Amino acid sequence: MVCAANIATSSIVTEMIKSLSLEQAWKDITWKRVTEEIGGLPSVKIHCGVLAVGRTKSAQSGNISKKKM
Fold first, then answer.
1. Over 80: is that where the pLDDT of 52 sits?
2. Among residues 2, 6, 34, 50, which is most buried (max CB within 10 A)?
3. DSSP per-residue string spanning the chain
């Protein structure tokens, strides 16, 4: 079963990073900001925002490391 909050937070993170550089996205995108952008989450769904940001930063860390080489 798919979690609507997980889909929503992942989608908003995607929209938020489209116009940002990797470095700017790394600094600016936080789970609190994601939660605010979608109009809030119930406390039992906060982890969805944390996961969405964590997955994004994990992917970014590989790209940032490659750029520095």
1. yes
2. 34
3. ---HHHHHHHHHHHHHHTTS-HHHHHHH--HHHHHHHTT---GGGHHHHHHHHHHHHHHHHHHHHHHH-
